[in-house]
Amino acid sequence: MLIEAQSIELADAATEARTSDFLENPTAECRPHERGFLFVPQGTKPGPCPPAVFFMHGARPPKTTTEEAHLYLTPNQLCGTGNHSVVYNAEWEVPRSLIVEDVICKKCVFEKGIEILVAEDGPNGDTKDPKWLQETGTVVETAHEDPGLTIANKDAIEDENGECVSYDIEPPSLKVSRKYNGPVRVIDTGVQWQRAADGNTCKHRTGEPGQPLSPSEPPLTARVSIVAKMSLGYDYHLKTEANVYQKFPDHFYQHFTGYNIIAPLQDPVPVWALVPQFYGYYLPDKTIPPSFWKKGNRDGKGQNKGADDGEEKDGTSEKADRLKYDYRSPLMLIEHCGETVCNILDSMSIDDRQHCASLFLRLHHEGWLHNSLYTRNILYQPGPVDASPMERAQKATKRSDLRKTSFRLIDFGRTEKIQDRSLRLWEEDVATKTFKVLHDAMD
């Protein structure tokens, strides 16, 4: 958490430095995109032109750390047991601001910017400062010709005129783009970011997805489904795994929409997030004595006593319980990513199998060796991950190439940085064989 907070502070400082440099010499080329929007008046033609306008808005509010969150954990939600740990499905209650991002309304910025321009220059620009009329900027127009996509029949079937039959998948097109270069006129609109988590949004965002339809205040907190991992008595694997999660590069957690070819595979695979999101590693507070809960009567009332509270009715069993539960495990909280692929491997498409194998290969390309290459260490769930549970359930019934299944690599208790290339090659060989993606095994 400390590392993440420091990286956020560094990013904010870099943004402020870019903004200061820009204000000393405001040009379109060096404008800070995160602080405003460029406005080129409609009807501006390519070539020399008066300076464009940069409508500046407030800086994004700094992110703060969350001091308190509530974890709801029950033995009834056990979802996995291993040689070194146990895993539970859990609910995490956190402030809504941790989930719902602050937003900047582009329409508000432009409306306020135009209002300021009219006030300064007059409705028809009669009072505009002459320096903003000089043609010191340039609009560059670029034309890009797209040839389109045409597929010819491989059997070269000819029509009645003797010409080969072809199919136009995408017709040719000409795309024209314009870009402004040169000095800009800075207008500080004073528009600030909106706290969407509190429901305090402008008229433009009311009714948008994720925004309340009524003026009632949203709850201050929200519950999310996560996974809580606990270690067995005095086992070091969980601590090692938490350290590995924190050493992984940022792109292991990021979602990209494109595809890539990961050697030694020869077909493109998605480059979505590689591992579950990591929500922290928490140690028990040893200054707080443990509590013991015992089943009570059928009315559901039980006993909840601290280790030093009350008198022991059965000294032998009480002491045995205390010895049994003397060890209090740390907690590692990560994203809930579905179920293991063990039971569906034989029915998976070649695309999904290559996707699974590529997770290990991407790990290798960053210099890591997993050291526990089993199908149980890959989880899957219908995607996309930003869709609602109902939408995911609907897509789960579709073909594998339509449901956008998400895969994640887990269990890094033995993972380590490697220098020996032979170990990497050995694990790559195991990965391609496990998921049947060798050329002689492809469908």
Automatic annotation (TrEMBL):
Source species: Candolleomyces aberdarensis
Positions of the UniProt region annotated as Disordered: 293-319
Extent of Basic and acidic residues compositional bias: 296-319
Protein name: Protein kinase domain-containing protein
